[in-house]
Amino acid sequence: MILIGLTGWGDHDTLYTEPSKNKLEQYAAHFPVVEVDSSFYAIQPVKNAEKWVKQTPDSFRFVVKAFQGMTLHKKDMEPFQNIEMMFEAFLESIKPYLEAKKLEVVLFQFPPWFDCTRRNVNYLRKCKELMKNTPVALEFRHRSWFTELMEHQTISFMKKEGWIHSICDEPQIGQGCVPTILEPTNEKTTLVRLHGRNTHGWLKPKEGNWREVRYLYRYNHNELQEWKEKIEKIKSKSKNLTILFNNNSGGDAADNAKQLKDLLGLDFEGLAPKQLHLFE
């Protein structure tokens, strides 16, 4: 099964034909999966997940981003006393997704300074242990994990430890990026995240309006056709393939996602009905 969706549901104006506080309900009329980004900035209250589960069809799926303290973007563990408490709080927050069978995967996206060292490999083992049996995907942003010397070892490690590979499309410049490695590590699930190819925005310092520039990119037809061919190559290696567009800065993600859907000849079933509030 191939699912296509977007990172977040609040910034895609072309999807919403009417003003509404319940954008997720309208989003779910277009796509069968979404990435929850708010969980990266703060561990969300359980009531949020309960609400989002209720607002979406039975077949809808969530990719939930791991909290920034868990991926070492945040250098302290406040307000938690130790790493175990932090992970337990996160696991508690995602229970509604699990109970509703709507959790596709928890995404651990590590920062550009998380390089390939023994210490970091051991930390990945610790993360996997603390996440128990929850499906977890791994996305690197430091090139050292996929050098000619380390690529095979990194992929083998993910397979052995049970990490789902988050395959990326992003600008290829410097050490703070990874190449597109078309190698699923899990027979059940593979994640693909398309960040765009805005080289200038990728290098922009993280200050001011950097988010408005970093993911400012629109994939053209030829680039989407390339991804169609890549998806054809890997879809037989993993039962479920989830593709997320993250090129949100200019509002291009939704259009690109629908273009790829058409190229692949997909017809998503079980979507929410459109214009849910038309007669309210």
CATH uppermost class: Alpha Beta
- The tally of helices reads 11
> Residue-averaged pLDDT, rounded?
92
Main sheet summary? 8 strands, parallel, barrel
Level-2 CATH architecture: Alpha-Beta Barrel
What is the topology, as strand order, of the major beta sheet?
1-2-3-4-5-6-7-8
Overall, the morphology is globular
Number of separate strands: 8
How many structurally independent domains? 1
Structure classification: alpha/beta
Radius of gyration: 18 Å
User: What would the CATH topology be?
Assistant: TIM Barrel
What is the N-to-C succession of helices and strands? EHEHHEHHEHEHEEHHHEH
Cα end-to-end separation: 35 Å
Query: What percent strand?
Result: 15-25%
State the share of residues found in helices, binned by percent. Answer: 25-40%
Instruction: Tell me the name of the CATH homologous superfamily.
Output: Protein of unknown function UPF0759
Q: Low-confidence spans: pLDDT under 50, at least 5 residues?
A: 276-280
Written account of the structure:
- The model is unreliable at 276-280 (pLDDT under 50).
- 33% of the residues lie in helices and 16% in strands.
- The chain has a single domain (2-263), classed as Protein of unknown function UPF0759 (TIM Barrel, Alpha-Beta Barrel).
- With 280 residues, the chain is an alpha/beta fold.
- An eight-stranded parallel barrel has the order 1-2-3-4-5-6-7-8.
- The longest helix is centred in the C-terminal third of the chain and has 14 residues, at 221-234.
- It has eleven helices and eight strands.
- 39% of the residues are buried.
- It comes from Bacillus carboniphilus.
- InterPro entries: DUF72 (IPR002763), UPF0759_sf (IPR036520).
- Pfam families: DUF72 (PF01904).
- This is DUF72 domain-containing protein.
